Amino acid sequence: MIANHGQVKKYVYKVLGVNSRLDTVQVAKLDVKLKHLDEYCQARQEVAAYYDDAFRSIRPIQTPGRSPFCTHVFHQYTLVVPPAVRDDLKDYLQGKGIPSMIYYPIPLHHQEVFRSISRCAEDLAVSERLCASVISLPIHTEMTSEVQDEIIQGVAEFLKIKYELLCA
To answer: What is the pTM of this model?
Structure first.
């Protein structure tokens, strides 16, 4: 549990832990891959830009933000969608064979590990809203535009169907 961020089960943290899951084989692979890190980051940025272009005109999607003073490496490509449709979107994509993930569905201030030290004087509504609204799409260094087009089409189809039903 301590070697896996202190998780008792996925996304439920009971104690403080670390990310310490590398064995010697993984370390050897990482040693080789690190020599190509800049190429991998560039490839992910290109995949993210393709997603950005496709989702720019699709509402109510919010694409990942960028800061002008740094570079995003896109470990995940995470969209913000209305919380009322997020879980249905995940199910719809799964039905089409498109993987997606909901990372960190429970805000940190609700985790047992932080209850004794969480003394926030302010409302954490943004954290709670994002935990209910985000969904991450597949992204990797070898992703083709054809694969991305299938994913984009799945998201667009779902939102079109959902909002036609809501507006009917």
So the answer is: 0.84
